[in-house]
Design a protein that fits this description.
Elements (H helix, E strand, L loop, with lengths): L2 H7 L6 H12 L1 H4 L4 H8 L3 H10 L5 H15 L2 H10 L6 H19 L2 H12 L4 E4 L5 H13 L4 E4 L6 H4 L8 E6 L5 H13 L2 E6 L12 E4 L12 H17 L3 H14 L4
Parallel strand pairs: 1-2, 1-3, 3-4, 4-5
Helix pairs in contact: 2-4, 4-5, 7-8, 8-13, 9-13, 10-13
């Protein structure tokens, strides 16, 4: 079982210090595997004892036990993609654009380490079978909510977009129930509204899917499907490139699995558009 799975299976809420440690741990796993508890804690801005307590919370004998498991994971993942990343790490000419591109490419190449094709398939299948898909995201995530809302509607699916949690949220979720899907986005430090929406989804029997960065495994309540991947190492630019790629993968798998429904819907859209083009 991977460390991310240990975190997701932990029956309890992780503190803010725990969350900072998780982000620091997965920001650069190859390096973190060789950092002491004190060094990792320093990067996360927390006390060294917090790293030891987190390891024990997750079921390890201590920090060294967690570190050993992380090293084993790195050995398993050290493949051609890892070699490419190492080569990219050595490439730097000081240009902002070049550095940005390297950072984005490195983050994109890491996605398969965090998210399997089976997880993408599972998310797509849940969305295909839903009567309606509720999209949730605040701040910068609203761009992804808008993107997925438009793409899913073009595929013939009914969507509801929530970009603010307040009294009107109840009205939007009035018909939300069993068999429906909540697709949420959360990055860095999630707003408390996410927990409320996840709790409601669980109470009505809806499937919850979360697209997130390294904070994903710490989210509570635990979503049914967590698609969490690094958006870049600490100190690097962390754009929406990675979650957007995940969204695009889901849309393509939906088109692959829905028996032609997406293609038919896009064809109808093209016909309707002709009426409004001079």
């Amino acid at each position: 079982m991977k460390i991310q799975e240990f975190i997701q299976r932990y029956d309890g809420r992780l503190t803010e210090s725990d969350q900072r440690l998780v982000v620091a741990l997965f920001a650069n796993p190859a390096e973190s595997a060789f950092l002491s508890a004190t060094e990792l804690a320093s990067r996360a801005g927390v006390h060294a004892t917090t790293a030891v307590r987190l390891a024990k919370k997750l079921g390890f004998d201590g920090y060294s036990d967690l570190q050993k498991r992380l090293r084993e994971e790195r050995v398993e993942a050290h493949d051609a993609a890892e070699r490419v990343r190492l080569r990219l790490d050595k490439m730097s000419d000081g240009a902002i654009m070049a550095a940005l591109i390297e950072s984005e490419v490195r983050a994109l190449r890491q996605i398969p380490e965090h998210i399997s094709p089976e997880q993408i398939d599972k998310a797509a299948e849940a969305i295909i079978g839903a009567s309606q898909v509720v999209l949730y995201g605040l701040g910068h995530s609203t761009a992804l909510v808008d993107l997925m809302g438009r793409r899913l509607r073009r595929s013939g699916l009914n969507t509801i977009q929530i970009t603010h949690v307040g009294w009107e949220t109840g009205e939007k979720l009035l018909e939300f129930g069993c068999g429906d899907v909540l697709l949420g986005f959360a990055f860095r430090w999630p707003h408390k509204g996410l927990s409320k929406v996840l709790e409601h989804a669980g109470s009505v029997g809806a499937t919850s899917i979360l697209i997130s960065d390294l904070i994903g495994p710490t989210i509570r309540p635990v979503p049914d499907i967590v698609l969490a991947a690094s958006r870049g190492s600490l100190g690097e630019s962390q754009s929406l490139t990675v979650p957007m790629a995940i969204c695009n993968a889901i849309i393509l798998v939906i088109a692959q699995l829905d028996g032609g429904k997406s293609v038919e819907s896009l064809a109808r859209l093209a016909e309707v558009r002709k009426k409004f083009i001079e």
